[in-house]
Amino acid sequence: MTDTTTAADYAWIREQDQYEEYCVTLVQGLTPEELLQALGVESGMRITGVDGLIKPSQDSVLHHHREFAGATSLGGWSLMFEPDGYLGATDEVMLPLSRGRTVVSNHHGIAGACRFCWYRDGAILLDFDQLFPDDRDGSHPDGLLTEMRESGFDLSGSGDLDCGGQFLAAFALAHRITGIHLTPELFASAEFIGGLGPRRPSFSVR
Question: Whole-angstrom Cα distance, residue 185 to residue 162?
């Protein structure tokens, strides 16, 4: 574990209305090209900033019924951003991809699927719904309790939750696991490689 950001450090996410649904995935040890190829994404577009991924993502869903993903390099890691997708939180593709490496996925869906998942070496170490962080699965469901609390998750199970705060805490927890701090400057300036992925019916977020 590394670094100590909290949910408050990601308050800027709340100001981005276009981020209503997203999947943010950090993958260790693969270049963006290698990552997208492994996921079956036909990469070819060069896009600056996360906002630039939104329009082609909408077009891919409306006109092609396919996933769209963009990936950029972050010093030994690749960041994959899906404005309206869930490849990064799909076990059937992430489990094999995680063999020999760490993968952290933060999926926020407007239909209620809000999953945080930590994969490593072909296994799920930690898996939980961000609205119910007291109910965890994986081979090490209690391995990050301190980090989860410090990030901003309420583990009391009281049901009296700041939902927005829970979603922001997921970014802080991902930072603690990977050492990658996502910032508004990074989201605005990162150079992504993007493209069409598998057809939507082939995958479903757990």
Answer: 26
Residue 55 tokens, joined = 């329009």
Q: Measured on CA atoms in the order 164, 76, 42, 52, is the torsion positive or negative? A: positive
205 with 89: CB under 8 angstroms?
yes
Q: Which residues pair with 193 in a beta bridge?
A: 46, 71
What's the number of CA atoms in the CB half-sphere (13 Å) around residue 139?
8
pLDDT digits (tens, 9 = 90+) for 150-165: 999 999 876 555 667 8
Residue 49 CB-density burial (10 A; 0-12 exposed, 13-18 middle, 19+ buried): middle
> What is the pTM for the complete model shown?
0.92
Contact 137, 128 (CB under 8 A): yes
* 62 contact partners, CB below 8 Å, separation of at least 6: none
